[in-house]
Predict the structure.
Amino acid sequence: MMEQLLTDSLNTAPITGMVILSLIVVMINALKKEPLATEYWVSLVGIVINIGLAVWVFPERGTAFSGSVMTGGYASVTAIIFLTAAALTIMLARVYIDKIGANFGEFFHLILFVTTGMMSFAAGLDLLVTFVGLELMSIPLYVLAGITRRNLKATEAALKYFLLGAFSTGFFVYGIGLIYGMTGTTKILDIAQNINAYSSEPLFMVGAGLMLVGFAFKVGAVPFHMWVPDVYEGSPTMVSAFMSTGVKAAAFSALLLVFTATFDFMHSSINTVVAVLSVASMVIGNIVALSQKNFKRMLAYSSIAHAGYMLIGITAGGGVSIAGVLFYLVAYMLTNLGAFGIASFIENSDQTGTDIDDFRGLYQRHPALAVILGVFMFSLIGLPPFAGFFGKYYIFVAAIENGYTWLTIVGVITSMISVYYYLRVVVVMFFQPEGEQVQTARFGREGAFALAVAAAGVLLIGVFPSVVLDWVSALF
Amino acid sequence: MSSELIVFLILAAVGVLSGILMITRPNPVNSALFLILNFMALAGLYITLHAQFVAIIQILVYAGAIMVLVLFVIMLLNLEDEEPLREQMSKRHYGSLLVALLALVLIVQVIGWNSGGTLETMREQSPHALRIGTVEHIGSVLFTEHVYPFELTSILLLAAIVGAIVMAKKRFP
């Protein structure tokens, strides 16, 4: 019994490691009042160690804790994505949280808690674990969104995110309840064995639909996107960055695991619903983004659009799509963290100054930042040789192979619309003169390093996609 | 008349009576106290159904924690006692009437639906079923089959506590 628990804990080493790390950082934070260098370094080193652990357990494919959580393979790959996002967020936010007056140790361990939740959410093979992981991911984020309590916009964002998030979790749990009532178990693999019989039961399909609502809320797909712009604009920029990359990645990973890899809803009515969500997200996200004046708000609508592209992969189903969506998540994570990071560098201390006009003349002041932001914008459009291109490419290929050419056409057309608003940022940065109020970017060595990592990653996997593709292929 | 039936009748009578008293008291604090009595009677019923764990949780969570919250809210709202109970019939009340009717249909349906199962037949058919509600069984399942979600929940609670303190108590520079 004890030995079994020990083996299971070792096989889920990245998650166990993150739990221990969060507890250590909580204790450090509780016991001392000095500046935050310790919390920062312990969190960062701990996350890097956990990435190592995730690589180490990669071959141990299977389940642990009597089938309630997945080990190795898919769980490792998703864990590496979330841990990288967390590490980059912490590094980019190091100077930023000082600037906005949120330089608390809690910032770090709340991020660690969120990451633990994401890993459980994405690796949960028991609907209970999926649910508790979802909550562990969301609750600290509600706090992080409003961590600058004196700032009205941040408080508004936190309250909106909390109320709507709690509401959507209600749908999610109700769905789990109905599925449990129908099948008598919460173990996803047990349910998957009889999925064909259950798929004809209305009760089960209603349950799956309600779970889909919960997922769609977390990924920010239309029509469950109403919170996204306000929350991303109001929250501290690096928190928005973590939300738009980590949370989206976690929700998509869990959606892939439950709906695509195990339940395999490829030929059921759920698939039609996902296709509709996808088209609506692509069209509305891209068109509304055209008229945005605030950079963070524009990225919020762009993130809705990107959720739409990834939902194409979910609709198409199959192994190629799973690899495609995971690849997209990696590309999107690096690109978006970098873009939000640069916005956080030039932001004012009262969390204003992220309008697109505030980027005027960035090239004269900080040529390197302008060039790197240009790279990220091109990657978001999906131009080669940047990571975003191969993300879209693999998803579209999977869709065409599975007979969803029409979805691909919508995807390509809406991508073309998106060129306008991404390129506008580039034009403003390079060709418009500086405004009267010049903001000097503050980022420090850690921020510069993280930004360089993100930019290098975008270029590297854009030129050599196999670096990532080898990891994410053939996971199931 | 078996002792089981006598206990059931007493508990059921207390439950129904306290329920009626709860919705008819003009003073909200009295209502809340009768609600606690109702919870107690229900907990007794759970014990007769061999669901010890649910009974204990009923007392701890509902009669304990949630009722404290209810009383706290009543105190904060500072309601004037002796509020007139009578109200005009409005559209909203027709809605409640409809819900009440639906509940009645459900109750009649459940009473009419006789599975023929009593505790005795249950004991014969599946000896395992009677153990499910016991503290022992829930404890062992919690620490073997569901140990992962159980431990994860404790981390979730810690994160929520930290978060609540950051939101409410953190001193801002």
In short: The helical segments of chain B are 3-24, 28-48, 52-77, 91-112, 119-125, 135-143, 147-169.
